[in-house]
Predict the structure.
Amino acid sequence: MKRFSFITEIDARVLEPDSTVELEAGGHITPLAQDTLRERRVTVVYLDGRDVEAAASLVPAARISTVAVGSDHGGLALKQALVAHLRARGMAVLDLGTHTAAPVDYPDIAAAVARTVAKKDADAGLVIDGAGIGSAMAANKVPGIRAAMCPTPTIARYSREHNGANVITLGATLVSEDEAKVILDAWLATPMTEPRYIRRLAKLAAIERDRR
């Protein structure tokens, strides 16, 4: 990775599109270079920690007290069990449905949970459908959401520690009730603290802005 103490327009023009460069502590980027870097989608990593500070607001809550929960009809039984599990742990639960066995579409439920988390009305979200895949896809369409389908405790921990997931999705046909509780507990207990991981949240946010 190239490192600079000063980035000019000439420097910016010769950098590869979609590349990443480092700027030394106290370094400077000229205004014209800033525009060119943006046009060429070049990511600048600030070695004085500014990038970490900028991404800090994107880090999911380390201590989760309120969880928005939802499921389609296929995940209803597992949702009810996990709602009781969360409440037994002393957490507040916003149960956004479904509440009956009548068929519902998972995108509607996933969107409701994701929007609740994005508005910060809940610290985290949990969505359950048959496989958990569709709900993750739907939730990730909501700006500010990083949803991960987690079939194992290890993936649950990685999704939080490495990727800053703020919504977890589970597949009711893939895990038992006991397995789901272990996965969810691992997810809830894992904070995101490593600066190099936090820095990458800003890059995810930049991709999201470009998509708009």
Q: What stands out?
A: Residues 3-48 form one domain. The chain has a mean pLDDT of 92. Residues 72 and 106 are 5 Å apart (CA to CA). Strands lie at 3-7, 20-29, 43-46, 66-71, 92-95, 124-129, 147-149, 167-171.
